UniProtKB/TrEMBL annotation:
SUPFAM superfamilies: Helical backbone' metal receptor (SSF53807). The lineage of its organism: Bacteria, Bacillati, Bacillota, Negativicutes, Selenomonadales. Belongs to the bacterial solute-binding protein 8 family. Pfam families: Peripla_BP_2. This is Corrinoid ABC transporter substrate-binding protein. Residues 56-254 form the Fe/B12 periplasmic-binding domain. It comes from Methylomusa anaerophila. Gene3D superfamilies: Nitrogenase molybdenum iron protein domain. PANTHER family: MOLYBDATE-BINDING PROTEIN MOLA (PTHR30535:SF34), VITAMIN B12-BINDING PROTEIN (PTHR30535).
């Protein structure tokens, strides 16, 4: 019974993280433009001076695309990364600008966006090329449950959708708190041992990753949690030796 409950809770946590729930309705009533010289801190810890009016953005992070859509600012997106264009119906008509790790820098510069939203996996050299061309680059992850609410609020400030973003953040926090209340009393000996597989075969997750936070937050034990690298590569034999209670495959692509 505990195993069944765990998988239900984990599924709910994944849906919330990936923006699979509609959440509260949003409206298309943006506030005034951000104040001159106002700044926000992105997920890389950098102080970003907010552009005066974000009307044309390129989003190279699928999770960010979903969140921007959720707060009602999808009309500002002029381009996405390749996998988002292929996997998200709402992005099918958007221009593609390469992968999230290796975007087409020259094409982005030629498009002249107000900002480019990336994640921490983008090549730092390419980030610098964009910034040297006068393009604002903002790093937001949206895969770590522990900072998800803060990132949504930051997104709201950037797109003048603060009220909508706060509603969505509160919606997610409501169910995150519910999950925590349901799993907090599970005894260690009753916790489910889980193998979490990432984007490729036998690529798993350790502490500091979004997958690890999902498993432990749902009351499970990540069998790779103590590995020394964040995204270790393992084998079928390694998984079998750990005697897991089940596995979870992440099909979500950046």
């Amino acid at each position: 019974m505990i195993k069944k409950i765990f998988w239900i809770i984990l599924a709910a946590a994944v849906i919330l993280l990936l923006g699979g729930c509609n959440g509260p309705e949003t409206t298309e009533n943006p506030a005034d433009s951000p104040a001159a010289n106002a700044a926000v801190k992105d997920s890389a810890g950098r102080e970003i001076k907010m552009p005066a009016n974000l009307k044309r953005v390129i989003v190279l992070n699928s999770s960010a695309f979903n969140m921007i859509t959720a707060i009602g600012a999808a009309d500002t997106i002029i381009g996405v990364n390749d996998s988002t264009q292929k996997s998200e119906a709402a992005a099918a008509g958007k221009e593609a600008f390469g992968s999230f790790m290796q975007p087409y820098v020259e094409k982005i510069i030629a498009a002249g966006p107000d900002a480019v939203i990336v994640n921490s996996m983008m090549n730092s050299t390419q980030v610098k090329q964009l910034e040297d061309a006068g393009i604002t680059v903002i790093s937001l992850e949206f895969y770590l449950p522990s900072i998800l609410q803060d990132e949504i609020v930051t997104l709201g400030k950037l797109f003048n959708r603060e009220a909508q973003a706060q509603k969505y953040a509160d919606f997610i926090m409501k169910y995150r708190n519910l999950i925590e209340s349901r799993v907090k009393d599970i005894r260690p000996e009753n916790k489910v041992a889980v193998y979490f597989e990432g984007y490729s075969e036998y690529s798993t997750v350790a502490r500091g990753s979004g997958g690890d936070e999902l498993v432990t937050g749902a009351g499970g034990i990540n069998i790779a949690g103590r590995e020394t690298v964040k995204y270790p590569k393992v084998s079928a034999e390694w998984v079998l030796e750990k005697k897991t209670s089940g596995g979870c495959k992440d099909h979500f692509q950046q």
